[in-house]
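Hello Y.,

Per our agreement to keep a running log of every chain we model this quarter, I'm adding this entry. I've kept the format consistent with earlier entries: sequence first, then predicted structure.
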Amino acid sequence: MKLLFALPGFHNYDRGAEVALMSVAEELAATGDDVTLMGSGQPRPGTSYHFEHIDARAREGFEKWPNFPPLRSETAWEDASFSVNLLRRYNPSEFDAVVTCSFPFTHWALRRPARRKPLQIFVTQNGDWPAYENRSEYRTFSCDGLVCSNPDYYERNRKKWNCALIPNGVDLSRFKPGQGDRARFGFPSDKRIILMVSAFIESKRVLEGIRAVSKMEDAYLVVAGDGPLRNEAQALADGLMPGRFQRISLTAGEMPLLYQSVDTFLHLSLLESFGNVFLEAWASGLPIIAHDTERLRWILGEYGYLCDTEDQPMLIRTLVDALSSGCTDNSVGIDRFAWSTIAGEYRSFISGLKKIASSVP
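Predicted structure for the entry above:
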C-alpha cells in the first residue's frame, strides 16, 4: 500500500502522538509498504519511510494568541499553519490511504476534493471527540476508518464508523531495564528520583505532582517536557522544594537512558487516550504510580500502583510504597505491545477497508 502519515510535529517533536504514528509508519515501511511522512521537522537518517518537510509555526509561538472555535488552543494554531502548506504539497491521487490524528485543519486538508480519493484513517491519539461530537467544527468530521486507542473509544464509536481497537506500542529493543547514568543528567546520588514525562499543561497535573513530592524530603522530582505552565511549575517548585526539582528536555534517543536512571515513574493525568509513557516505563521495569481508571487497568493489567491521585495523602503513601519496592518484573504482558505487532494490526485494518472500498461499484 502507498500510505501517507501527516502531523505537524513529525520529526520536530517526540511527543506521544508523534512517537506512536512514526513508530507505526517505520514498521509498515520496513516490512514492505510505501510510506511517506509529512511534518514540520527535517529528514532523519536511517528511516525506512520517506519524509517530506512541510513548514509550520511551532505551538509555543501561539501560547498567547487568542483562542476561539476552531482555533481553540496553541495546538490548533500550529495545526492551521501546517495545513496551509500541506495543501500545497499533498496530492490525494498518490496514496491509497492517509493517516492523521490532528483535527480540524490537517484533517480538512487531507480530505481536499480530488478525482481519486485515498482512504481517510483517523487515529484517536488525542481523543475521540471529533468522531462523536456534533457541534461547531466537529460536525465536519468524517473518516473511512477510526483507530480507537482504548475500549471506551471503540464502544462509543463502533456503530457510527468502521472502527478497530488498536493500542499504542513500545520499542522493546530500546526501552528495557538497565543501569542508567544519573551523572549524565545531573541527578543527585543521595535522593530517590521520581520521574514525570509530561507536558506542562493543566490536564497533566504537574503542579499537583510538585505539591505531593515536596512533602517527601528524600525525593527529587524530574519532569521531562515543556508547555505553557513551565514557569508556574518552576516557581512552585522553587518555593516548596528548592533544589529538589529539575525540568529537562531530551531527544527521543536519550529517553531510554532517562527511564533507567530513575527510581519510579509518576503520571497524574486523570484520563489519557492511551499514554505511550506507561509502556515505556513498564518496559524499563519502573514502578508506575498513576490515577486508577478502568482504561489504565486495561493497558497495565496488574502492573503498577494505581490509586486516587486526587487524594494527596493516598498519593504520597503510594509513592512511598512504590519507591520501597524498587524495579519490578516487567516480563509478563509487555510483549503484546511491541510495535511490530501494533503495525501489523494497522496493516490488517487498512487492507480490509481497501478491499471493502474496491468492491463498491
